[in-house]
Design goal:
174 residues; alpha+beta; 2 domains; two-stranded antiparallel sheet; 39% helix; elongated
């Protein structure tokens, strides 16, 4: 038997999210809690842990699980002053991997003229590197780890240079 109160405050969460057997009960509970908050609500693992009996590390583990399954998408954004910060968007359904990668790539695109010139210099450097390899009779391919982006997510879901290609996006040379 299920008994429900007749409260005016309630949250609608899609059943598949609450029944996703790939998620632990802890992750499902944190997802439900976050989805019950107003749009644009901001928090972090320390604040979440303070509102429950779970410790901060347990909350972080659940958040990492939600990111791994696509319920949380992480982006690095730069404000008008050039300061970087990480934002996390929570969804009531898993976001496909392709869209998560697209969000990641979008987060590192240049936003200012100075960044555009830095980005252009990096691209020119990559082009020179590829031309040099071709001149030596070698064929350059895209790095299989970062798919040519030169960036990857580390264990904390932060952006870093791809260790496989050294950040140049060039994979094996034949």
């Amino acid at each position: 038997m299920i008994i429900r109160s007749r409260s005016e405050q309630w949250t609608s969460i899609p059943t598949p999210a609450l029944r996703d057997t790939d998620l632990s009960y802890r992750a499902r509970g944190i997802l439900a809690y976050i989805l019950s908050m107003p749009a644009h609500w901001e928090t972090n693992s320390t604040i979440l842990a303070a509102r429950t009996t779970e410790g901060r590390d347990a909350v972080r583990t659940a958040l990492k699980e939600l990111r791994a399954h696509g319920y949380i998408v992480t982006r690095r954004v730069q404000d008008s002053a050039g300061q970087w910060r990480t934002t996390h968007t929570v969804f009531d359904h898993p976001v496909p991997v392709e869209e998560r990668v697209e969000a990641l790539v979008e987060s590192v695109r240049p936003k200012t003229e100075n960044q555009a010139s830095v980005s252009q210099a990096i691209n020119e450097s990559l082009l020179i590197s590829k031309k040099n390899k071709r001149a030596m009779g070698q064929t350059a391919t895209l790095c299989t780890t970062c798919k040519g982006a030169g960036l990857r997510l580390d264990q904390n879901d932060e952006l870093e240079l791809c260790t496989e290609c050294g950040g140049d996006g060039i994979g094996t040379v034949k």
